[in-house]
Please model this.
Amino acid sequence: MNNYSDNYPEFYKKIKEKIFQYTGRIDIHHIGSTSIPGMKGKGIIDILVGYDSNKNSKKLATQLKKAGFIFQKSSSKDRIFLSNKIEETKEGDFHIHLTRKNSLEYVNLLKFKKILLKFPKSCEEYLFAKQISEKSAQGKRKLYKENKSVVIEKILRDYSKLK
Model:
């Protein structure tokens, strides 16, 4: 895992502007570890793009493909996943999660970020879970994500009640 870089917000800003060149102004958010100051992670810039309809999602996906992003297999049936590389990703790469606005996944991704920003203890829990997941998964990305998702769900449950 990499330490947080103060460059992450600037990387996001640059890629957001590139995306806007192809899509116009759309609903876009910086999510994931690189959006949380001080959070260790893989250094991948995760971007949430919200769409209104299936027709709109296909149009956005085509525009993002023209911008140089590559379709990837998604772990969710409710999400179109794109990245800037075909091979396994690493620090400095970009992931785009194209999801219907106001879907449970969309809402939870934004809610999780808000929790991490507001409650430092949630960051500690999440970082610990990521470190344990990384160690136990031994390089198997799918297993790492599955292990981590259990803790994400717990944090969402535990902290959603708090204001």
User: Anything to note?
Assistant: The mean pLDDT is 89.
